[in-house]
Specification:
Blueprint lengths: L1 H5 L9 H7 L3 E6 L4 E3 L7 E15 L5 E7 L4 E2 L1 H6 L6 E14 H10 L1 H25 L4 H16 L1 E3 L2 E4 L5 H8 L3 H13 L3 E4 L2 E4 L2 H8 L2
Antiparallel strand pairs: 1-6, 2-6, 3-4, 3-5, 3-6, 7-8, 8-10, 9-10
Length: 225
Amino acid sequence: MHQKLAEIPLFDGIKPTVLKSISPFFSSKKYKRKKVIIRADQENDRFYIIKSGELKVYRINKYNQEILLALLGEGDFFGEMSILDGNMASANVAVLQPCELLSVHKRDFMKIMKTVPKFSAHMFHYLTQRIRSADENIENLNRPNSYERIAAVLVQIAERSGYRKRSSVVIDKIPFQHNIASLAGTSRETVSRALNQLKEDAYIYKNGRHLVIRDYPRFYEEFTQ
């Protein structure tokens, strides 16, 4: 287990001896698609780290519509909010693609937070990033132009799960169009039209779920202002 922890960004720079000492607290489990890991407004007593796979964070509004809040992938984590503030879970978390999750009970999570300073520092760093990302999402949803909102969502996805290839950024598995639509506050049809327009404008290359943002510095500057 300590070798799996060593591959997670949250544990970067933590000595192998420390990882070995905390690894017995963690368990590993694989989940199939559609499995709900955490339910909103219910108690949660575990902290989860995604070893592989993809999950979504969402809420259901009063009209029984799903509101997508975030997409999570390898190295991301969830469940910490309800542990840290002692309240019920604020959102649902469900499996989009088969995943392996590492998890730890809240009492052991708090022990690790107190006894492993680097882990705590990494936690606060990533939580701060999430707040910044949430601010950007709110700002993006206020853009009147849906084309620009969708392009800004692509930037967020590229920053989280893309990798550089010269001046381009490659995203091996772009989220499905209905998920992009939810993140951009628009319809699936609008996303399809916007992606086609971005291809015509030579901003992106797309083949199935494989997407390349061609001149990423230009794309980033144009759609994050």
